[in-house]
Amino acid sequence: MINLKFAFRLLLKTPFVTSVAIASLALGIGANTAIFSLFNQLLLRPLPVLHPDRLVNLGAPGPNPGSQSCGLAGGCDVVFSYPMFRDLEREQTPFTGIAAHVVFDANLAARNHTESAEAMMVSGSYFQVLGLNPVIGRLLGRDDDQAPGASRVAVLSYDYWTNTFGGDPTVLNQSVIVNGESMTIIGVAPRGFTGTTIGSRPSVFMPITMRGILIPGWKGFDNRRSYWIYLFARLKPGISIDKASAAINVPYHAILTNVEAPLQQGMSAPTMAKFRAKVLTLAPGFQGQSTVGKDAKGPLTFLLAITAFVLLIACANIANLLLVRGASRAGEMAVRMSIGGSRTQMVMQLLVESCILGLVGGIASLGVARATLGAMAHLLPDFAAQTFDVHLDGAVIFFTASLAIGTAIVFGLFPAIHATRPDLIAGLRASTGQPGGGRAAARWRSTLATAQIALSMALLGAAGLFARSLANISRTDLGVKIDRVVTFGLSPSRNGYAYPRTLQLMQQVEDRLRHEPGVTAVTSSQVPLLANSNWGNDVDVEGFATGPDVDNNSRRNMVSPGYFSTLGVPVMTGREFTEADFLGAPKVAIVNQAFAKKFNLGANPVGKRMDESSRKYDIEIVGLVRDAKYSDVKDQIPPVYFTPIAQDSGIGSASFYVRTSLDPRRMVATIPKVIAAIDPNLPVEDLRTMPEQVRQNVYLDRFISIFSGAFAGLATLLAAIGLYGVLAYTVAQRTREIGVRMALGAAPWRVRSMVLGQVAMMTLIGAVIGVGAAVALGRLAQAQLYQMQGYDPIALSLAVVTLAAVAFVAGLVPAVRASRIEPTRALRYE
To answer: Mind listing the pLDDT tens digit for each residue in 771-829?
Structure first.
């Protein structure tokens, strides 16, 4: 009969073994729980809506001639025009409804509080298709999106309602100011619902027909060549994805052929054929629409594999500890069997003790997982940290419990079977002072220790790869000088600023900042530098042949005078922009080397002319600058042309760059005060130093490098503990043998060599196996590495040296202890 009280008492009698086992499990399971929590949230967990398995996301891969605006919700092959959305909405025979949505940045003001936040414009069918109900009031409906600009209503997210309005139930019919426009609050979305895009947490939901009002200057409701809306739908009961796809593609192809194909101009015959052959695709939409899952799948799968290795090492430790503990209880087992005890009962009793260790370790692992998630959130930039919750939900706790019990049973089974082997004489001898355990147990312990070394080697090798990859990133020539530069953004158009006033504000901000102590230069740009933002246009360049299917696209940026000198980008020929390059003056541009190379402009493009696909060639190139990174640190430098920010009448936001001779942190504290003195209702966005901006740009590489290194270090520590335990127990078992050797004249150094030789053999075998595993892990992680292959001799060599040093230290204490055994004491029991 299983006795829980007896099991607890026995575990408490060996506090060291119990503590080490629980700590090993807590660390191993905790690491797995933390990564699984991320994996679950980003790749497995469905939306908190009605029957999420019936949702499908719509896409249309193929040529999208015209303009595309795509973001976190998906690539440019899954965005639609507004007219196409309305056409499909009328033809939605296989669906109960089709919904549209798009996230945008907004300035929100309510109850004397202004902040920059995310908002979402949705169709009137959005909440209905999701099957949601409001906390108070009502949600947006079909009557709210009938005509552009007609419904100035808003639904608050639950978090924004509680944080800004204090959960006030009388908030209905009050106002919230969105981008300078007053919107009437009609309801609050349900708790826990944060939209349908992972990585985005909109504070306010508004009708999609308000886009023309909330985005100044935008006019695209009737443009079938303007792709900007994301669509999803709910399948009718009994309709499969395949049947729905076949049904909806009939009207879709009719629209393409009869309505949209005639609108395409300058399209080659092959491209037109591809355009007409486009297929409307349906994909499972239970998680919403987001690129986060796709981007995170590789890194999270890799980290999950690493933490699985850590858990295997921890479990090997426990198995070894249980083998040692079982050997010490061989006498007890022999006596119990000799008086009629069932072996099955004893195995079950030992497994219960293992399960108790597993459960206690699993409970402790929840704290480790919570701390690990907190560390991850602290290391990640805000926009990445908000994609996941640091709290552990029911699915994760179930995963932890299953892992704890599973590992306890799997790695407690062999020690339990071995401890209850029917070798009564050996057990009784052990109870009289002669150690037992047998060769099988010794081989098992050595095998487990060697496996731990191999797994540690694999993880150290992988961690070395990521450390060297991150070092390569840090050595990348950005083409700009970022030291002592502070950057921030302003979006005055969201507060109702028109063009002349926006430009005046920007000039006022630059002038005020130039007079601050320590400031040596100030400039600005439309597209923020190294912030994963892109703005591209097709251009016509004098002398460059163009036509259907010719790539004449280039990245673009609008910058103020002094941009290149402030950021340390050399002007190779020509000049920078000046105050004379204002709206109404002759149009000018500066291009980078990649632009000059792509459009065959030679070494000196100054004086050449270009335009933005109007064939007027009304822009003169006045300068050539050296190539510099544009959007991403790791990307190749694209062709870029720069135009004066003062010549763009549509300017509505800007990023500023302030170079200072003082500590940049002082400027970070000063900038909000300067802006508040100019306009206290204008929030400062993305305020940070440029080195911080660069670190955020490569946050995923830093994240993987830090945590792969941390997990590898943890694995190596656990392996060292396991190796020490095996050697210490082996020395204890061989006390009599070592005593005899020393009595016969063996020198202490020979005894130490004997023990360290065992260490060397296990380390050698483990390292060889581990190198192969490290190469396999490196190939798995190849996509995450920068300028290096998955096999790197330097990283593997460093891993081998590190592992050898740790193994030597782990084996040194047992070796020294063995060399100090007194022969008379060792032979006392003979």
So the answer is: 998 888 888 888 888 888 888 889 889 999 998 898 888 888 777 777 777 666 655 54
Q: Is-contact 567 480, C-beta < 8 A?
A: yes
Tell how strand 588-592 and strand 619-625 pair up. parallel
Q: How far lies 454's CA from each of 165, 303, 411, 463, 709, in Å? A: 56, 18, 18, 14, 16
> Given the DSSP bridges, would you call strands 67-68 and 226-227 parallel, antiparallel or unpaired?
parallel
User: 335 is written with which tokens?
Assistant: 């006596």
DSSP class of 784: G
pLDDT digits (tens, 9 = 90+) for 303-341: 898 999 999 888 888 887 777 666 666 666 666 777 766
Beta-carbon count within 10 A of 201 CB: 18
Instruction: Give, in degrees to the nearest 5, the angle at Cα 369 between 367 and 375.
Output: 105
Q: Are 349 and 7 in contact (CB under 8 A)?
A: yes
Q: By the 8 A CB rule, do 177 and 109 touch?
A: yes
- Which SS3 state, helix, strand or coil, does residue 52 take? helix
Contacts of 623 (CB under 8 A, 6+ apart): 571, 573, 574, 575, 576, 590, 591, 606
Identity of the residue numbered 522: V
Distance CA 746, CA 749 (A): 8
Read off the pLDDT of residues 593-629 as tens digits, 9 standing for 90 and up: 999 999 999 989 999 999 986 678 899 999 999 999 9
Q: What is the DSSP letter of 700?
A: H
Q: Residue 183: how many CB atoms within 10 A of its CB?
A: 26
Nearest to 737 by CA among 810, 821, 813, 812: 821
Instruction: State pLDDT tens for residues 472-531.
Output: 998 999 999 999 999 999 988 887 788 888 999 999 999 999 999 999 999 999 999 998
Neighbouring CB atoms inside 10 A of 460's CB total: 29
Q: Do 322 and 412 contact (CB within 8 A), yes or no?
A: yes
| Residue of 606, 610, 479, 625 whose CA lies nearest to 553 | 610
Q: Report the C-alpha gap between 675 and 669 in whole angstroms.
A: 11
- Dihedral in degrees, nearest 10, Cα atoms 441, 447, 452, 455: -150
CA separation for the pair 396, 394 (Å, rounded): 5
Looking up tokens 């991150």 gives 470
Angle, in degrees to the nearest 10, between helices 699-733 and 343-379: 150
For residue 443, pLDDT over 90 is answered with no
Mean pLDDT score of the chain, rounded to an integer? 87
Other C-beta atoms lying within 10 Å of the C-beta of residue 632 = 15
Rounded Cα gap, residues 419 and 459, in angstroms = 32
C-beta separation of 606 from 573 below 8 A:
yes
pTM of the predicted model, to two decimals?
0.82
Rounded to 10 deg, the angle between the 690-697 and 699-733 helix axes is: 70
Rg (CA), the chain: 34
Top-confidence residue, 354 or 739: 354
**Do the Cβ atoms of 185 and 176 come closer than 8 Å?**
yes
Distance spanning both ends of the chain, measured CA to CA:
38
Range list of H helices, 240-388? 241-255, 269-276, 292-328, 330-338, 343-379, 382-385
- The DSSP annotation for 427-446 comes to HHHHHTT----HHHHHHHHH
**Pair 659, 485: CB distance under 8 Å:** yes
The burial of 824, by beta-carbon neighbours within 10 Å (0-12 exposed, 13-18 middle, 19 or more buried), is given as: exposed
Contact at 8 Å (CB) between 135 and 188?
A: yes
Structure tokens at 778: 């490196």
Greatest pairwise CA separation for the chain in angstroms: 106
Tokens 């692992």 appear where? 365
Name the one residue in this structure whose structure tokens are 């510099």: 628
Question: Quick check: 659 and 519 in contact, CB under 8 A?
Answer: yes
Name the residue with tokens 């073994």. 17
Q: If residue 733 lies in a helix (H) or strand (E), which one and from where to where? A: helix 699-733
> Do residues 171 and 235 make contact, with C-beta atoms less than 8 angstroms apart?
no
Structure-token match 């990023």, residue found: 655
